[in-house]
Specification:
This protein has 409 residues and is α/β, with parallel strands linked by helices. It folds into two domains: 180 residues, Rossmann fold; 214 residues, Rossmann fold. It has 14 helices and 22 strands. The protein has an eight-stranded mixed β-sheet, sandwiched between helices. Helix 1 crosses helix 9, helix 5 packs across helix 8 and helix 10 packs across helix 14. The longest helix is centred in the middle third of the chain and has 18 residues. The mean pLDDT is 88.
Length: 409
């Protein structure tokens, strides 16, 4: 269950830090890959050398190390893990997490992560029972942070009560239970997905651009539904007025060419859903300065060039082709004929055809009506009821799950 999983371990200050060395050793025995961040306080109790020897990785301590930023910056540390474990989690670090502080490498990585976080508190019993600590724990748990312990018993300070770091076996069991539950409840666990969303903006000059009315609502909803089903999602978004969804990597782009590069950089993937409304053309040579009207009455001469075809590139045969490539066909006439032709032309597996005429009110709106057309049965389109875009996303992901499971949805 743990083999090949990536753990970011944050070790804060406290005498219980010595127990974490046993946690590292036993997780490594199970095949888990571990990178460790050692706080200034943690380094008073365990040495970087001992942690490095057991993790078989370098230990990260300094937020402002140029080498770290060039080779393994705090953003990559926080994003490449499957789980972030804070053990021991001192009262000070818990308070800084709850406050959203980012004044060292540990808190910066925790604030930047979009991955699940599990904390193992360890402190004096009175510190644990203090109203401030209880409020901080409640705040973190309301944000989805998981907790193991603390245990009760004799404390290093000579007192007795709650505050002991959970035993290594219990921490390892909590880590194992996390991945067991995640796999059982997440039918797309282990699958990588790319979702494009929103419009592209193709510049005419520094203040004008060519765009469309795509809101990104459908693409973002699909990305959220895929992540909820366990997929590792990269959302590539054009300019939208939507917040970044949590639980996935998000890349922001403006032009079709930037979106193409971002898609290629995100391969390989098992699933690609091209929900973005990518501009077919761009101004071949955008002006470096704002185009001004003059007294001649002449219009500017705008020459256009064709943008790269992202969906066709993903659908083309090759070693990096996703197992399931899905496109959208937003049409104003001859919906099914145009969608079936696009399915063949682009080489994708499925096309979601939707009517974007003014009467339908779907382009940029909150609802969609989809005709799902599949490459293996192009004449047998599946008509979905008109529904909100979250329901469309859930319906699509159910079809994707059934596809990979080899069952009927």
């Amino acid at each position: 269950m743990l083999s090949g999983k990536n753990l970011l371990l944050i070790i804060s200050g406290g005498i219980a830090a010595y127990k974490v060395l046993e946690v590292i050793r036993r997780l490594r025995d199970r095949g888990m890959m571990i990178r460790a961040v050692l706080t200034e306080g943690g380094a008073q109790f365990v040495t970087p050398l001992s942690v490095a020897a057991l993790t078989e990785n370098r230990v990260y301590q300094d937020l402002f190390s140029l080498t770290d930023e060039a080779e393994m910056g705090h953003i990559r540390l926080s994003r490449e893990a499957d789980l972030v474990l804070v053990a021991p989690a001192s009262a000070d670090l818990i308070a800084r997490m709850a406050s959203g502080m980012a004044n060292d490498l540990a808190t910066t990585a925790l604030l930047a992560t979009n991955k699940p976080v599990l904390i193992a508190p360890a402190m004096n019993v009175e510190m644990w029972n203090h109203a401030a600590t209880r409020a901080n724990i409640a705040t973190l748990e309301s944000r989805g942070v998981m907790r193991i312990g603390p245990a009760s018993g004799d404390l290093a300070c000579g007192e007795f009560g709650s505050g002991r770091l959970s035993e290594p076996a219990d921490i390892i069991a909590a880590v194992t239970d996390f991945f067991t539950a995640r796999t059982a409840a997440k039918p797309l666990a282990g699958k990588r997905a790319i979702v494009t969303s929103g419009p592209t903006h193709e510049p005419i000059d520094p203040v004008r651009y060519i765009a469309n009315r795509s809101s990104g609502k459908q693409g973002h909803a699909i990305a959220v539904a895929l992540a909820a089903a366990g997929a590792e999602v990269t959302l590539i978004s054009g300019p939208v007025a939507l917040p970044d969804p949590s639980g996935m990597a998000v890349r922001h782009v403006e032009t079709a060419r930037e979106m193409m590069v971002a898609v290629q950089d995100s391969l390989p993937a098992d699933i690609a859903v091209c929900a973005a409304a990518v501009a077919d053309w761009r101004v071949a040579s955008s002006a470096g300065q704002k185009l001004k009207k003059d007294e001649s009455g002449q219009m500017p001469d705008l020459r256009f060039a064709e943008n790269p075809d992202i969906l066709a590139a993903l659908g083309a045969p090759g070693p990096n082709r996703p197992a399931l490539v899905i496109g959208f066909a937003a049409e104003t006439e001859n919906l099914l004929a145009h969608a079936r032709a696009k399915l063949v032309r682009k080489g994708c597996d499925w096309i979601l055809a939707n009517d974007v005429t003014a009467e339908s009110g779907t382009f940029g709106g909150d609802h969609n009506q989809i005709h799902l057309i599949r490459q293996d049965r192009p004449q047998d389109d599946d008509v979905w009821p008109r529904q909100d875009k979250k329901a469309v996303a859930d319906h699509l992901v159910a079809q994707i799950i059934a596809h990979f499971a080899g069952t009927k949805p």
